[in-house]
């Protein structure tokens, strides 16, 4: 990808002397920042913006690594052919008029992609804003030259955007506000060839980039994306547009790409340690935070020291912190003693620290400095949150000194700034220089702090597929699982549970019977209470079809149930006698093969609450044990799994094992379309599959 | 309160010529903005800031309505005595050093308050920043005179703050940013006499105030606060600091006041139609929105037209809207036809509207105008959300015209602005002038839109107490409820349910028995399955004490259960035989008498999920039917109450009736401390109390 990021010579195809047109702006922007040779190409001109213009790309002298194309869409295929013949390795197509405009454009895009496949030339775009690199001062884009007025403030956050908006307008917004630094911005447009994964792969190894943010409306290859993110400690943040039904409809009409969906993708992102954002500024604020603190000390926790110049700010911060999974540090005696030296006697300091009484006695600099020194030395403090005021009052602080104290202690410092407009702006800019994330609003500050301190995946993980290979191989060879290749469509409840049992998933004790006599024999073995179910081919909602008898407590009841079932079923299907499992916590687990993400595993609250409370989480198979445990931790009903009200805790390893196995099973047998275990009843602390359904490819009716 | 807000003559007690001191700043600020007479009081000076100074308040000539006091705390009582003798009706005590500093200060505050009680003089403060009124340009405060540099931008939002921070530093922040207008800011400090309710009562009738925001760490009288809010259509927003455990601890140490607590107060606020905020900027952004749109058309809904200059902005907006309870309008054919006139043929317009292709064809002004005209005329549109860009591009819009179009259609317009720093700032200021709420971030914009369009209580409600009186009176006179005055402490389950039944709350069929023989007789009437429970005085956790037998299906089982219970209970307590209620949706309901809020009602998810999912809502008794239905609507498990998976919907009127009755019962019998109904099982769509506990004042052991 170096020819895109550090090209030796650039041809601009479709260059024009008409100011305000894209073909002129590209040349202008190159002239302003790019130090290599620029070759405008247009048969109608000899010179553009004082630079020699060439009639065609074949006339352009060496070296030329990159062509930037801004011609009418219908001209693009022949231009790309010419570039390929000229052996130019990379082309950025900034013209619009492709798949985003309908079927004609879609065909044109298809034709262009085929040239790339045939010739090996790499195509970036079309319908994109190209690349901005603040370190090299490269602007390979039709973005308005007003961008140079911002000074192109550089930093260590790089962005990849499937939208001209983020790469163009929003970038100017960000840069002109100057309160965060950007390294590179890559606008990928319709991503007909070069996609987010190609660029992510490059940025992971880019020394100018410490954190990567993406705005995407579709994920080209989610598994590769996850693997890339898991291969690095460099933090990745994603804003995934089109998550809701409404949003997804908009995504289709806008980018001609399917939405990457909701819960599945959210689960996949969490599994790969990717941070998710919900808005543009939140995306870049998360990135800014992570760019400043790309890694934290090993055993860093979520305990924060809060220093504010008013009590109210501390109280509101504490409320918000609680909501974002952060705790208030309980200061050591040494810290409390040191703090007391700057506070009046009547005010014993505690966390949050209301600095005001100290400021009145000792001035703001001394009070803030003393507090910073003491909390940074306190082992109960993982991070420091400081509220400052700029202008008007005697509330000056020495931010540089505070930043140094925090940095030396290895504790991230967060700053919330209030004050007069110009002074707060100066404060923001100097904090940016000092590498301290500063925020105008307490809510965003606490959001970023919560994101950083609770970020789950910080280490490079081993490849989960290697770990899983062995179990998948065993499952493939298990003779008890023959039905997964020989049968089609829905397996009945009994057979579905035989599959699960063969994989080692705990299932309820049950047997098929054909008569009341057989049922009595089974009852003699199992004991009461029992459940009788009628399995009729094609009937999946047994309860609604009067095919379930719960709480059978006696021989008479059993006889009645079996007899009635036989009448209801009229000779079709089989009768299942189950031991009734007691337990009032019900979960569900499942497997689904997603068209984009492949084999995926689900876990959620089961029973009647499943739909009403919609508490489900997804993971991408194969799962490691850690993946599965993390999935369980993402459930809202997580506290229910701990022991309470006389109930013991749920064995999470067993539950995680079930999820892992479901995923491995789906990987081993590509014919499995879907598995549902609902309910998965917690009996004496262990999950037991009470009802199950396996769906294979094809039809069985 | 007019003497605080429009005083004829102000004495400043503790005035001083030393610049930077509070006693000087107050005089300065008065001189700059106040047009009445100012009388500095200090025996040591003849003149302060060019104004004649008086040795004592008794020497001050008429008229003098207000004294602002800034002397050492220990001097305050004698100063207040002097003010009372001088017949000054109101005093603002801006000095600190009272209850917030510990027991000595608390005693001083007590002494001062007693003078007010004795003389009828009204005291505002102490430990406060006083009052700022931008319309009259009154600054009765020690706030830095730098506040005048902001130009004191005026507007129709008034704030009441139990924190100097919000009234001082944050006010300067707000005003110097100039992107919202303020009418009055009242800093109430320790509120020893004048409290939020006094000020709220004044602001409700203040013609300069259209919306009221409060930052409070404690509610002096929550019921009066609720009644005031229910008495007006003027919107009220509250940021209630100290909601979490951590926050509450901070509140105690900061203001010497107890935190107003979490779920109870949240419920009370929702019941009174008060909007709640979580951060300072969110508080004022909510107020700004409500100040611009204090009321909406009667049948206004939550359907929004979204116009953005890029597809990505529309997609992200739609995702966020979904989360904040907003829907995308489905445009009428007329709207789609009009939109199509400015869009290229290949792009059939839909909501969200990606304006870019239209802008390229027709320019931004025409495209935005056409879109605004058509969506404002569309009956499917309740509000319009527009994303604009300021600077750099050719994306100028005529905001004034758009504002006029929306205003004439009676549809609230919201604007999200991105762009170059100075240009976006200009845009924000002109939007403020035009009365259009504008936001820099999509997330906040959607939050505010969601708050406005989903705001529940828009109309003045009838006094709920009048409506409830009749039922409360009947309950008081009901002879079946004699035990509520004659007994003490815990009532056993059987008696507790007799109480509920007498009130008309559906309870499970049950009878007390003393022998196996009696139990058999009961079974003959009820039929199986049954439940047997042992009620032993002092034992509230029956299950854990082996006092509950569920699913008794036969005479033998019944005999075994009763016999075992008799052994376990060893002659103490009574045995209850219940019909076993089937139903797999379990709720709970309850009553609690809160020290601050008085009688309150609770409803929540019951059974094993109660604690794990913590889905409970509170209301303040007596409840109207609407209050009770609104409580039910605030439950997260709300969808569970609708029919699903073969289960019918829950009869909400019956459930609401139970909540209402619990509240009325608590109002009728002040000895009731607590009532718990758990579970309240949904049986054939109707809630039935299966277990219950009534706790009265006093001990019964």
Distinctive features:
homodimer, 701 residues, alpha/beta, Rossmann fold, 7-stranded mixed sheet, 7-stranded antiparallel sheet, 27 helices, 31 strands, 39% helix, 22% strand, flat
Question: How would you describe what is shown here?
Answer:
2 copies of one chain form a homodimer. Chain A is an alpha/beta fold and 701 residues long. The first copy, chain A, folds into 5 domains: 127 residues, Rossmann fold (3-Layer(aba) Sandwich), CATH 3.40.50.720; 168 residues, Succinyl-CoA synthetase domains (Rossmann fold, 3-Layer(aba) Sandwich), CATH 3.40.50; 151 residues, Rossmann fold (3-Layer(aba) Sandwich), CATH 3.40.50.261; 168 residues, ATP-grasp fold, B domain (D-amino Acid Aminotransferase, Chain A, domain 1); 71 residues, ATP-grasp fold, A domain (Dna Ligase, domain 1), CATH 3.30.1490.20. Chain A is 39% helix and 22% strand. In chain A, strand 8 and strand 9 form a beta hairpin. In chain A, helix 13 packs antiparallel against helix 15. Chain A starts with a helix and ends in a 5-residue tail after the last strand. About 2% of the residues of chain A have low confidence. At the A-B interface, helix 5, helix 6, helix 9, helix 11 and helix 12 of A face helix 5, helix 6, helix 9, helix 11 and helix 12 of B.
């Amino acid at each position: 990808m170096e020819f895109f990021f550090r090209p030796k010579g650039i041809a601009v195809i479709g260059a024009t002397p008409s100011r305000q047109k894209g073909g002129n702006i590209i040349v202008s922007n190159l002239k302003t920042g790019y130090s290599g040779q620029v070759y405008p190409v247009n048969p109608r001109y000899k010179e553009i913006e004082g630079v020699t213009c060439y009639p065609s790309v074949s006339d352009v002298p060496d070296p030329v690594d990159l062509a930037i194309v801004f011609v009418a869409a219908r001209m693009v295929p022949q231009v790309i052919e010419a570039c390929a013949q000229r052996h130019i390795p990379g082309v950025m197509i900034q013209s619009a008029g492709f798949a985003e405009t309908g079927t004609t454009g879609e065909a044109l895009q298809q034709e262009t992609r085929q040239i790339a496949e045939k010739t090996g030339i790499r195509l970036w775009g079309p319908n994109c804003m190209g690349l901005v690199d603040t370190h090299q001062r490269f602007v390979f884009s039709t973005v308005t030259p007003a961008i140079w007025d911002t000074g192109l403030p550089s930093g260590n956050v790089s962005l990849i955007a499937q939208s001209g908006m983020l790469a163009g307008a929003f970038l100017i917004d960000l840069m002109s506000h100057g309160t965060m630094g950007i390294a590179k911005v890559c606008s990928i447009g319709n991503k007909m060839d070069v996609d987010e994964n190609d660029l992510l792969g490059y940025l992971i190894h880019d020394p100018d980039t410490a954190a990567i943010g993406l705005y995407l409306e579709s994920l080209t290859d989610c598994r590769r994306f996850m693997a890339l993110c898991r291969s690095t400690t460099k933090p990745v943040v994603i804003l995934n547009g089109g998550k809701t039904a409404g949003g997804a409809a908009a995504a289709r009409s806008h980018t001609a790409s399917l939405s990457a969906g909701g819960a599945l993708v959210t689960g996949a992102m969490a599994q790969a340690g990717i941070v998710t954002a919900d808005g543009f500024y939140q995306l870049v604020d998360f990135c800014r935070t992570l760019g400043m603190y790309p890694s934290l000390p090993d055993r860093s926790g979520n305990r924060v020291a809060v220093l504010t110049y008013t009590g109210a700010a501390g109280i509101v911060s504490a409320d918000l912190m609680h909501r974002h999974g952060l705790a208030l540090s309980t200061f050591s005696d040494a810290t409390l003693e040191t703090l007391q030296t700057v506070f009046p006697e009547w005010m014993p300091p505690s966390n949050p620290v209301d600095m005001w009484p100290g400021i009145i006695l000792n001035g703001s600099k001394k009070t803030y400095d003393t507090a910073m020194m003491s909390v940074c030395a306190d082992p109960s403090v993982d991070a420091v949150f400081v509220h400052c005021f700029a202008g008007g009052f005697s509330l000056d602080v020495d931010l540089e000194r505070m930043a140094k104290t925090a940095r030396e202690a290895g504790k991230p410092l967060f700053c919330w700034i209030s004050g007069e407009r110009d002074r707060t702006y100066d404060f923001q800019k100097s904090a940016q220089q000092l590498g301290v994330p500063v925020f105008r609003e307490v809510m965003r500050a606490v959001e970023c702090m919560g994101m950083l301190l609770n970020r789950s995946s910080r280490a490079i993980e081993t490849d989960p597929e290697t770990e899983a290979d062995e179990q998948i191989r065993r499952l493939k060879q298990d003779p008890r699982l023959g039905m997964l290749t020989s049968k089609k469509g829905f397996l009945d409840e009994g057979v579905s549970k035989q599959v699960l049992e063969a994989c080692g998933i705990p299932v309820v004790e049950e047997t098929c019977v054909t008569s009341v006599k057989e049922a009595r024999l089974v009852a003699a073995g199992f004991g009461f209470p029992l459940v009788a179910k009628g399995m009729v081919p094609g009937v999946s909602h047994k309860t609604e079809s009067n095919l379930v008898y719960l709480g059978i407590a006696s021989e008479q009841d059993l006889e009645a149930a079996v007899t009635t079932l036989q009448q209801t079923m009229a000779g079709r299907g089989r009768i299942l006698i189950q031991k009734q499992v007691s337990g009032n916590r019900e979960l569900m687990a499942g497997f689904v093969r997603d068209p984009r993400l492949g084999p995926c595993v689900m876990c959620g609250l089961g029973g009647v609450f499943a739909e009403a409370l919609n508490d489900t989480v997804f993971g991408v198979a194969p799962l490691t044990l850690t993946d599965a445990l993390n999935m369980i931790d993402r459930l809202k009903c997580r506290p229910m799994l701990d022991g309470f009200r006389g109930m013991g805790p749920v064995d999470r390893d067993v539950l995680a094992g079930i999820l892992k196995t479901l995923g491995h099973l789906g990987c081993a047998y590509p014919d499995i379309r879907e598995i549902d275990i609902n309910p998965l009843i917690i009996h004496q602390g262990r999950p037991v599959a009470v009802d199950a359904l396996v769906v294979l490819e094809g039809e069985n009716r």
